[in-house]
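Researcher: Next entry in the queue.
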Amino acid sequence: MPKVKTNSSAKKRFKLTGTGKIARKSAYKSHILTKKETKQKRNLTQTSYVHDADMGNVKRMLAIGK
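Model: Structure for this entry, 66 residues:
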């Protein structure tokens, strides 16, 4: 069987935690920041986790498991 390649864009955007969850950064923090409130920009800085419904697709892109 051939090797499974990791998606290059996915390995830059997602990080596997020690407990097996996949961390991600929030969207809407790259540009057009002048119209956003300071509180919104501060909250977008925090990392969050990939939703359970999307976990299979992200794991497939990262070549984890299966």
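Model: Residues 1-14+42-65 form one domain.
Researcher: Noted, moving on.
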